[in-house]
Amino acid sequence: MRRELCWTLLILVVGARDGITAEAISREDFPPEFVFGSGSSAYQVEGAAFDDGRTPSVWDTFAHSGRVLDKSNGDIACDQYHKYKEDVKLMVDTGLEAYRFSISWPRLIPNGRGLVNPKGLQYYNSLINELLDNGIQPHVTLFHYDLPQALEDEYQGWLSPKIVKDFTAYADVCFKEFGDRVSHWTTLNEPNVLTLGAYDIGFFPPGRCSSPFGFNCTEGNSTVEPYIAAHNILLAHASVARLYKKKYLAKQKGIIGINIFAYFLVPFTNTIEDTRATQRANDFYIGWFMDPLMFGDYPEIVKKNAGSRIPSFTPSQSRQVQGSADFFGLNHYTTFYVKDDPDSLNNNPRDFRGDMAIKLTAKADRVSKAEESPNVVYEAKLSSGTDAIPPGMQGVLQYLKQTYDNPPIYIHENGQMAFHNASLNDMSRVKYLEDYIQSLLQAVRNGSDVRGYFSWSFLDAFELFDGYQSSFGLYYVDFNSPDLKRYPKLSAHWFMDPLMFGDYPETVKKNVGSRIPSFTQANPDKCKAQLTSLDRTITPHYMSRMILIVSTTIQEIFGEIWPSS
Ligand SMILES: *[C@@H]1O[C@H](CO)[C@@H](O)[C@H](O)[C@H]1NC(C)=O
Ligand SMILES: *[C@@H]1O[C@H](CO)[C@@H](O)[C@H](O)[C@H]1NC(C)=O
Ligand SMILES: *[C@@H]1O[C@H](CO)[C@@H](O)[C@H](O)[C@H]1NC(C)=O
Ligand SMILES: *[C@@H]1O[C@H](CO)[C@@H](O)[C@H](O)[C@H]1NC(C)=O
């Protein structure tokens, strides 16, 4: 009852028209062809880094040079390479309808180009077959950060237009070998994070940046390289999509899209400056990739502020890029405030963030607390772990629907970070997932063309920012046990059961008892918190992943906990 009231209020606030009540989320609330799944990426779960002919990716090199926060690497990770059968069994237990994973390019084509590694083929064939034998759809990403080191060494990877040909040849092998059984292809995972992380701030491999930006990199040019890499990525994506449509579509009948990372952005104040700044931030973070894909060119404001530092599309490139994504994968975790920062346009030199001329901010009081004692805030936020702003899911989907004429979308990542620990009671993660899926449902009911939802992540994994310190998994992995034993958390039990059957499984209700919030009970405090202004705190996820695309102020605040190069 109270929950109903709360949602009614929320609906008033966000302006939805149909008065849905927040009863248990049920599978039937979503269209039958909608898929629910969970995800991973090759370097983060496979392990077997030196086995069966795999060569290093830029992530191996980077991690082995000690640049991950906890100095760890993905040599072994979850060892999914050897344990995929067990993992697929766990997916069946969890009731997953789909599994999102990525192919390791240097495992399939060692050195990035040329001969195909039969052991690599065998592994992905086995994984795909195992999934299909168990009724689980494979949703495959071709590139999730792990570029073959050989191509980085040869021509600097994404900085060179040569990557287009090699990436297309790699994709060709994937379509040819796996496309009879895989019908959902994503070319790249969050290129908007990759380009800034790798070439502006330099804390993702290959770790390039230039002073005064980023972390004392030895090489790079933060003012131009993110734009150059993004341009090559768009051309590479378009080339792969064209290949698929020309050579495979008629027979394989799949779809091919790309993924982006997006916050929901809210003006910090109602001033016209902050409102415009918010649009500008969306143009930079989202439009940078989506505008060329939908309209054939970068947003005007991006071209204007980046000037000669951003490459232009030739007419034929523009035609190739436009319309080359059948769908967009969306990685969405949280919401931010945007403040106008016109002074940054006077900076010289200037990087992407200066060109954007905004500051991303949490609520002001949190920022000042963070200034006093960065590590304390980091620790506190990591352990509390509840930074959900679920209405942001509906917000960002509404933005995409309006701006890009309602493109098909898969939620590829959404989930909650916590310290990696042996507790299996991740009630706050259950609440996070429940609230975000509720918000997603509102968006679907309001007409957003969303076709699937994947939680991040299925297993606790090697996380790209801090290694094994934090985790998002529905399953706890005991990285200290010799066989890397997996244990289902409460969220694993929850994830499909209420969606399928409208309630937690009996065993969970019995074991967790009254600590489980009932699906029909309100949580008035939480609702209130959401209603009053989309307040938020500095999120652990933001710490772990998106530090890279925030203001230099925040960069300085947290400077001391970052790895120095
Ligand atoms: C629902 O969709 C309509 C049409 O796009 C839009 O005007 C309205 O703001 C949307 N409601 C919410 C809550 O996003
Ligand atoms: C970065 O590239 C720009 C444009 O080519 C150039 O003007 C600038 O000097 C370069 N900066 C560094 C640090 O190399
Ligand atoms: C331990 O992990 C659980 C489950 O992921 C999480 O909910 C909890 O907050 C974590 N505890 C600490 C102290 O970090
Ligand atoms: C970069 O190097 C300078 C000078 O050695 C040092 O003061 C600063 O803390 C370093 N910055 C980072 C982010 O590592």
A few lines on this structure:
By secondary structure, the chain is of the alpha/beta class. It has helices at 2-14, 42-45, 58-64, 80-94, 105-108, 118-133, 149-155, 162-178, 191-201, 225-252, 272-295, 300-306, 315-321, 352-356, 364-372, 374-384, 391-403, 427-445, 490-501, 506-512, 524-531, 540-546, 552-557; strands at 35-39, 98-102, 137-143, 184-188, 255-261, 264-267, 328-331, 335-340, 358-361, 409-413, 418-419, 450-455, 470-471, 475-477, 486-488. It has a single domain (2-561), classed as Glycosidases (TIM Barrel), CATH 3.20.20.
Folded structure, characterized:
The protein has 565 residues and is of the alpha/beta class. It has helices at 2-14, 42-45, 58-64, 80-94, 105-108, 118-133, 149-155, 162-178, 191-201, 225-252, 272-295, 300-306, 315-321, 352-356, 364-372, 374-384, 391-403, 427-445, 490-501, 506-512, 524-531, 540-546, 552-557, and strands at residues 35-39, 98-102, 137-143, 184-188, 255-261, 264-267, 328-331, 335-340, 358-361, 409-413, 418-419, 450-455, 470-471, 475-477, 486-488. The chain has an eight-stranded parallel beta barrel with strand order 1-2-3-4-5-7-10-12, surrounded by five helices. Helix 4 packs parallel to helix 6 (118-133). The protein is globular and about 60 Å long. The protein binds 2-acetamido-2-deoxy-beta-D-glucopyranose (4 copies).
List the defining traits of the structure above.
alpha/beta; 23 helices; disordered N terminus; 15 strands; 565 residues; binds 2-acetamido-2-deoxy-beta-D-glucopyranose; eight-stranded parallel β-barrel; disordered C terminus; single chain; three-stranded mixed sheet; TIM Barrel
